[in-house]
Amino acid sequence: MNWSEQVILVTGGTGSFGKKFVEIMLKEYHPKRLVIFSRDELKQHDMRAAGLDDPSLRYFIGDVRDPGRLERAFAGVTVVVHAAALKQVPACEYNPFEAIQTNIMGGRNVIDAAINQGVRRILALSTDKAVNPINLYGATKLCAEKMFVQANAYAGGQESRFSCARYGNVVGSRGSVIPVFLEQRRRGRITLTDPRMTRFWLTLEQGVRFVVSSIEQMHGGEIFVPKIPSMRLVDLAETIAPGCEIETIGIRPGEKLHEVLVSEDEARNTLETRDRYIIQPSHPWWRRENWVDATPLPEGFRYASDTNERWLTNRELQELIAPVAPEEQPVPARVSA
Protein backbone atom coordinates (compact mmCIF):
# COMPACT_ATOMS: atom_id res chain seq x y z
CA MET A 1 0.00 0.00 0.00
CA ASN A 2 1.03 3.56 -0.64
CA TRP A 3 0.03 4.98 2.73
CA SER A 4 0.66 8.56 1.62
CA GLU A 5 -2.39 8.26 -0.64
CA GLN A 6 -4.71 6.82 2.03
CA VAL A 7 -7.39 8.57 4.06
CA ILE A 8 -7.44 6.66 7.35
CA LEU A 9 -10.01 6.73 10.13
CA VAL A 10 -9.54 5.08 13.52
CA THR A 11 -12.56 4.61 15.78
CA GLY A 12 -11.76 4.88 19.47
CA GLY A 13 -8.85 7.01 18.32
CA THR A 14 -8.19 8.59 21.72
CA GLY A 15 -7.62 5.22 23.41
CA SER A 16 -4.25 3.63 24.15
CA PHE A 17 -4.05 1.90 20.78
CA GLY A 18 -5.42 4.90 18.88
CA LYS A 19 -2.84 7.32 20.23
CA LYS A 20 0.08 5.03 19.46
CA PHE A 21 -1.38 4.29 16.01
CA VAL A 22 -1.61 8.01 15.26
CA GLU A 23 1.96 8.63 16.47
CA ILE A 24 3.42 5.91 14.25
CA MET A 25 1.29 6.87 11.24
CA LEU A 26 2.37 10.51 11.41
CA LYS A 27 6.02 9.70 12.02
CA GLU A 28 6.54 6.92 9.45
CA TYR A 29 3.66 6.61 6.98
CA HIS A 30 2.41 10.19 6.40
CA PRO A 31 -1.15 9.47 5.25
CA LYS A 32 -3.05 11.97 3.15
CA ARG A 33 -5.53 12.42 5.98
CA LEU A 34 -5.94 10.78 9.37
CA VAL A 35 -9.27 10.99 11.18
CA ILE A 36 -9.55 10.39 14.93
CA PHE A 37 -13.12 9.35 15.69
CA SER A 38 -14.14 9.22 19.37
CA ARG A 39 -16.84 10.44 21.73
CA ASP A 40 -14.64 12.15 24.36
CA GLU A 41 -13.85 15.79 23.59
CA LEU A 42 -11.48 16.10 26.58
CA LYS A 43 -9.28 13.24 25.37
CA GLN A 44 -9.19 14.78 21.90
CA HIS A 45 -8.13 18.11 23.45
CA ASP A 46 -5.44 16.32 25.46
CA MET A 47 -4.10 14.64 22.32
CA ARG A 48 -3.84 18.02 20.57
CA ALA A 49 -2.17 19.55 23.62
CA ALA A 50 0.33 16.69 23.70
CA GLY A 51 1.51 17.62 20.20
CA LEU A 52 -0.71 15.48 17.97
CA ASP A 53 -1.87 18.43 15.90
CA ASP A 54 -0.51 17.65 12.43
CA PRO A 55 -2.19 19.36 9.42
CA SER A 56 -3.28 15.92 8.17
CA LEU A 57 -5.19 15.18 11.40
CA ARG A 58 -8.94 15.57 11.80
CA TYR A 59 -10.70 15.19 15.15
CA PHE A 60 -14.29 13.95 14.84
CA ILE A 61 -16.61 13.81 17.83
CA GLY A 62 -18.93 10.84 17.43
CA ASP A 63 -20.07 7.48 18.75
CA VAL A 64 -20.09 4.16 16.88
CA ARG A 65 -23.65 3.78 18.16
CA ASP A 66 -24.67 6.65 15.84
CA PRO A 67 -24.92 5.29 12.27
CA GLY A 68 -25.59 8.72 10.76
CA ARG A 69 -22.43 10.20 12.22
CA LEU A 70 -20.39 7.24 10.98
CA GLU A 71 -21.80 7.68 7.46
CA ARG A 72 -20.66 11.31 7.45
CA ALA A 73 -17.27 10.52 9.00
CA PHE A 74 -16.51 7.71 6.51
CA ALA A 75 -17.06 9.90 3.43
CA GLY A 76 -13.86 9.78 1.36
CA VAL A 77 -12.13 7.37 3.78
CA THR A 78 -10.16 4.46 2.26
CA VAL A 79 -8.98 2.61 5.41
CA VAL A 80 -10.78 2.13 8.75
CA VAL A 81 -9.24 0.69 11.91
CA HIS A 82 -12.07 -0.16 14.29
CA ALA A 83 -10.67 0.04 17.82
CA ALA A 84 -13.67 1.48 19.68
CA ALA A 85 -15.07 -0.87 22.32
CA LEU A 86 -16.03 -1.27 25.94
CA LYS A 87 -13.13 -3.38 27.20
CA GLN A 88 -13.30 -3.60 30.99
CA VAL A 89 -14.56 -7.07 31.89
CA PRO A 90 -16.28 -6.09 35.20
CA ALA A 91 -17.94 -3.06 33.58
CA CYS A 92 -19.28 -5.16 30.71
CA GLU A 93 -20.63 -7.75 33.15
CA TYR A 94 -22.42 -5.08 35.17
CA ASN A 95 -23.68 -3.17 32.10
CA PRO A 96 -24.44 -5.89 29.53
CA PHE A 97 -26.82 -3.81 27.39
CA GLU A 98 -24.20 -1.09 27.04
CA ALA A 99 -21.50 -3.60 26.05
CA ILE A 100 -23.79 -5.06 23.38
CA GLN A 101 -24.76 -1.63 22.06
CA THR A 102 -21.12 -0.57 21.60
CA ASN A 103 -19.26 -3.78 20.79
CA ILE A 104 -21.88 -5.53 18.65
CA MET A 105 -24.33 -2.93 17.33
CA GLY A 106 -21.54 -0.39 17.02
CA GLY A 107 -19.63 -2.93 14.93
CA ARG A 108 -22.66 -3.37 12.68
CA ASN A 109 -22.88 0.39 12.21
CA VAL A 110 -19.20 0.51 11.20
CA ILE A 111 -19.77 -2.27 8.64
CA ASP A 112 -22.87 -0.60 7.15
CA ALA A 113 -21.22 2.82 6.92
CA ALA A 114 -18.05 1.36 5.39
CA ILE A 115 -19.97 -0.49 2.67
CA ASN A 116 -22.23 2.50 1.94
CA GLN A 117 -19.27 4.88 1.67
CA GLY A 118 -17.03 2.49 -0.28
CA VAL A 119 -14.23 2.19 2.28
CA ARG A 120 -11.74 -0.26 0.80
CA ARG A 121 -10.10 -1.90 3.82
CA ILE A 122 -11.56 -2.26 7.30
CA LEU A 123 -9.72 -4.01 10.12
CA ALA A 124 -11.41 -4.60 13.50
CA LEU A 125 -9.40 -5.21 16.67
CA SER A 126 -10.27 -8.29 18.72
CA THR A 127 -8.93 -10.10 21.76
CA ASP A 128 -7.91 -13.52 23.02
CA LYS A 129 -11.02 -13.37 25.23
CA ALA A 130 -13.13 -13.91 22.08
CA VAL A 131 -11.92 -17.54 21.97
CA ASN A 132 -14.22 -19.81 24.00
CA PRO A 133 -15.53 -16.76 25.90
CA ILE A 134 -16.63 -17.02 29.51
CA ASN A 135 -17.40 -13.33 30.04
CA LEU A 136 -19.64 -10.87 28.19
CA TYR A 137 -16.74 -8.83 26.85
CA GLY A 138 -15.31 -11.91 25.15
CA ALA A 139 -18.74 -12.89 23.86
CA THR A 140 -19.33 -9.47 22.29
CA LYS A 141 -15.92 -9.56 20.60
CA LEU A 142 -16.65 -13.05 19.27
CA CYS A 143 -19.88 -11.72 17.75
CA ALA A 144 -17.97 -8.76 16.32
CA GLU A 145 -15.43 -11.10 14.71
CA LYS A 146 -18.21 -13.12 13.10
CA MET A 147 -19.83 -9.96 11.76
CA PHE A 148 -16.66 -8.51 10.29
CA VAL A 149 -15.71 -11.77 8.59
CA GLN A 150 -19.16 -12.22 7.07
CA ALA A 151 -19.32 -8.54 6.12
CA ASN A 152 -17.32 -9.48 3.04
CA ALA A 153 -20.42 -11.28 1.74
CA TYR A 154 -22.53 -8.17 2.40
CA ALA A 155 -20.01 -6.09 0.43
CA GLY A 156 -20.40 -8.43 -2.54
CA GLY A 157 -18.78 -7.05 -5.68
CA GLN A 158 -17.71 -3.81 -4.01
CA GLU A 159 -14.05 -3.18 -3.11
CA SER A 160 -14.79 -3.08 0.63
CA ARG A 161 -12.90 -5.85 2.43
CA PHE A 162 -13.12 -6.68 6.15
CA SER A 163 -10.69 -8.56 8.43
CA CYS A 164 -9.82 -8.79 12.14
CA ALA A 165 -6.64 -8.69 14.23
CA ARG A 166 -6.80 -10.77 17.40
CA TYR A 167 -4.09 -10.49 20.05
CA GLY A 168 -3.45 -10.64 23.79
CA ASN A 169 -2.76 -8.24 26.65
CA VAL A 170 -1.05 -4.95 25.81
CA VAL A 171 1.65 -3.36 27.97
CA GLY A 172 0.77 0.23 28.73
CA SER A 173 -2.92 0.05 27.78
CA ARG A 174 -5.56 1.34 30.17
CA GLY A 175 -6.86 -2.19 30.68
CA SER A 176 -3.46 -3.57 31.62
CA VAL A 177 -2.77 -5.04 35.05
CA ILE A 178 0.53 -3.14 35.20
CA PRO A 179 -0.98 0.14 36.50
CA VAL A 180 -2.69 -1.89 39.22
CA PHE A 181 0.60 -3.50 40.26
CA LEU A 182 2.36 -0.11 40.22
CA GLU A 183 -0.23 1.38 42.55
CA GLN A 184 -0.11 -1.65 44.86
CA ARG A 185 3.70 -1.51 44.90
CA ARG A 186 3.54 1.72 46.88
CA ARG A 187 1.76 -0.13 49.66
CA GLY A 188 4.17 -3.06 49.59
CA ARG A 189 1.52 -5.70 48.78
CA ILE A 190 0.55 -7.15 45.38
CA THR A 191 -2.72 -9.04 44.91
CA LEU A 192 -2.65 -11.93 42.45
CA THR A 193 -5.64 -14.05 41.50
CA ASP A 194 -3.67 -17.27 40.90
CA PRO A 195 0.12 -17.86 40.72
CA ARG A 196 -0.39 -20.32 37.82
CA MET A 197 -2.08 -17.73 35.61
CA THR A 198 -0.48 -17.04 32.22
CA ARG A 199 -1.15 -14.44 29.54
CA PHE A 200 0.00 -13.48 26.06
CA TRP A 201 1.75 -10.13 26.02
CA LEU A 202 2.88 -7.46 23.54
CA THR A 203 3.60 -3.74 23.53
CA LEU A 204 1.40 -1.02 22.07
CA GLU A 205 3.94 -0.43 19.31
CA GLN A 206 4.01 -4.14 18.44
CA GLY A 207 0.21 -4.14 18.30
CA VAL A 208 0.11 -1.12 15.98
CA ARG A 209 2.75 -2.55 13.64
CA PHE A 210 0.90 -5.86 13.52
CA VAL A 211 -2.31 -4.05 12.57
CA VAL A 212 -0.55 -2.04 9.86
CA SER A 213 1.02 -5.14 8.31
CA SER A 214 -2.32 -6.99 8.49
CA ILE A 215 -4.03 -4.18 6.58
CA GLU A 216 -1.31 -4.37 3.94
CA GLN A 217 -1.69 -8.14 3.52
CA MET A 218 -5.43 -8.73 3.98
CA HIS A 219 -7.63 -10.19 1.26
CA GLY A 220 -10.77 -9.83 3.37
CA GLY A 221 -12.13 -12.45 5.78
CA GLU A 222 -9.00 -13.34 7.72
CA ILE A 223 -8.50 -13.19 11.48
CA PHE A 224 -4.81 -12.38 11.99
CA VAL A 225 -3.10 -13.65 15.14
CA PRO A 226 0.48 -12.59 15.97
CA LYS A 227 3.12 -14.94 17.32
CA ILE A 228 3.81 -13.35 20.69
CA PRO A 229 5.37 -14.56 23.95
CA SER A 230 3.64 -15.69 27.13
CA MET A 231 4.45 -14.97 30.76
CA ARG A 232 3.21 -15.92 34.18
CA LEU A 233 1.56 -13.06 36.05
CA VAL A 234 3.49 -13.96 39.18
CA ASP A 235 6.71 -13.28 37.23
CA LEU A 236 5.31 -9.93 36.13
CA ALA A 237 4.41 -9.03 39.71
CA GLU A 238 7.84 -10.00 41.03
CA THR A 239 9.57 -8.02 38.26
CA ILE A 240 7.51 -4.86 38.84
CA ALA A 241 7.57 -5.06 42.64
CA PRO A 242 10.56 -7.09 43.88
CA GLY A 243 10.42 -7.67 47.61
CA CYS A 244 6.72 -6.92 47.93
CA GLU A 245 4.26 -9.31 49.55
CA ILE A 246 2.21 -11.26 47.00
CA GLU A 247 -1.25 -12.22 48.21
CA THR A 248 -3.31 -14.80 46.30
CA ILE A 249 -6.97 -13.76 46.24
CA GLY A 250 -8.50 -16.30 43.83
CA ILE A 251 -9.78 -16.09 40.25
CA ARG A 252 -12.55 -13.54 39.76
CA PRO A 253 -15.80 -14.17 37.86
CA GLY A 254 -15.28 -14.10 34.11
CA GLU A 255 -11.54 -14.66 34.38
CA LYS A 256 -9.58 -17.55 32.86
CA LEU A 257 -6.48 -19.26 34.18
CA HIS A 258 -4.94 -19.24 30.68
CA GLU A 259 -5.91 -17.57 27.41
CA VAL A 260 -6.18 -19.05 23.91
CA LEU A 261 -5.54 -17.19 20.64
CA VAL A 262 -6.25 -20.08 18.25
CA SER A 263 -8.54 -22.91 19.38
CA GLU A 264 -8.31 -26.54 18.21
CA ASP A 265 -11.43 -26.11 16.07
CA GLU A 266 -10.13 -22.91 14.47
CA ALA A 267 -6.75 -24.52 13.81
CA ARG A 268 -8.27 -26.72 11.10
CA ASN A 269 -8.84 -23.59 9.01
CA THR A 270 -5.67 -21.78 10.10
CA LEU A 271 -2.44 -21.18 8.20
CA GLU A 272 0.96 -20.25 9.58
CA THR A 273 3.57 -17.79 8.33
CA ARG A 274 6.81 -16.60 9.89
CA ASP A 275 5.24 -14.07 12.24
CA ARG A 276 1.54 -14.88 12.45
CA TYR A 277 -1.36 -17.30 12.19
CA ILE A 278 -4.13 -16.64 9.66
CA ILE A 279 -7.57 -18.00 10.53
CA GLN A 280 -9.42 -18.43 7.24
CA PRO A 281 -13.21 -18.08 7.00
CA SER A 282 -15.20 -21.23 6.33
CA HIS A 283 -17.49 -19.59 3.79
CA PRO A 284 -18.01 -20.38 0.10
CA TRP A 285 -16.83 -16.93 -1.04
CA TRP A 286 -13.33 -17.45 0.44
CA ARG A 287 -10.64 -18.33 -2.11
CA ARG A 288 -8.17 -20.91 -0.80
CA GLU A 289 -5.45 -19.62 -3.13
CA ASN A 290 -5.29 -16.34 -1.18
CA TRP A 291 -2.47 -17.63 1.01
CA VAL A 292 -0.67 -20.26 -1.08
CA ASP A 293 2.69 -19.61 0.62
CA ALA A 294 1.38 -20.21 4.15
CA THR A 295 1.55 -23.59 5.91
CA PRO A 296 -1.42 -25.50 7.40
CA LEU A 297 -1.26 -26.31 11.11
CA PRO A 298 -0.84 -29.86 12.44
CA GLU A 299 -3.82 -31.83 13.71
CA GLY A 300 -4.77 -30.92 17.27
CA PHE A 301 -2.86 -27.62 17.28
CA ARG A 302 -3.86 -25.10 19.93
CA TYR A 303 -2.21 -21.72 20.52
CA ALA A 304 -2.57 -21.13 24.27
CA SER A 305 -0.65 -19.00 26.75
CA ASP A 306 0.29 -21.96 28.97
CA THR A 307 1.64 -24.18 26.14
CA ASN A 308 3.25 -21.42 24.09
CA GLU A 309 6.75 -22.21 22.77
CA ARG A 310 7.92 -18.65 23.41
CA TRP A 311 8.21 -17.27 26.95
CA LEU A 312 9.47 -13.90 28.09
CA THR A 313 12.79 -14.07 29.90
CA ASN A 314 13.28 -11.96 33.03
CA ARG A 315 15.44 -9.50 31.08
CA GLU A 316 12.90 -9.23 28.26
CA LEU A 317 10.17 -8.67 30.82
CA GLN A 318 12.13 -5.87 32.48
CA GLU A 319 12.74 -4.19 29.11
CA LEU A 320 9.09 -4.60 28.20
CA ILE A 321 7.71 -2.88 31.30
CA ALA A 322 10.48 -0.28 31.69
CA PRO A 323 8.64 2.47 29.73
CA VAL A 324 5.50 2.15 31.87
CA ALA A 325 6.97 1.10 35.22
CA PRO A 326 9.32 3.79 36.60
CA GLU A 327 11.85 2.86 39.24
CA GLU A 328 10.49 3.10 42.77
CA GLN A 329 11.56 1.48 46.00
CA PRO A 330 8.81 -0.84 47.27
CA VAL A 331 8.07 -1.50 50.91
CA PRO A 332 9.85 -4.79 51.72
CA ALA A 333 7.58 -7.60 52.85
CA ARG A 334 7.46 -11.37 52.88
CA VAL A 335 5.83 -13.44 50.14
CA SER A 336 2.71 -15.33 51.16
CA ALA A 337 0.16 -17.53 49.40
Textual characterization of the structure:
This protein is of the alpha/beta class and 337 residues long. It has one domain (3-168, 201-228, 260-304): Rossmann fold (3-Layer(aba) Sandwich). Helix content is 36%, strand content 21%. Strands 3-2-1-4-5-6-10-15-14-16 form a 10-stranded mixed sheet, sandwiched between helices. A 3-stranded mixed sheet has the order 7-9-11. Strands 8-12 form a two-stranded parallel ribbon. β5, α6 (136-155) and β6 (161-167) form a beta-alpha-beta unit. α1 crosses α8 (204-217), α5 (96-117) runs parallel beside α6 and α9 (233-240) crosses α11 (314-321). It is globular. Mean pLDDT is 92; it is low at 329-337.
Give descriptors for this structure:
alpha/beta, 337 residues, 10-stranded mixed beta sheet, single chain, 11 helices, Rossmann fold, globular, 3-stranded mixed beta sheet, disordered C terminus
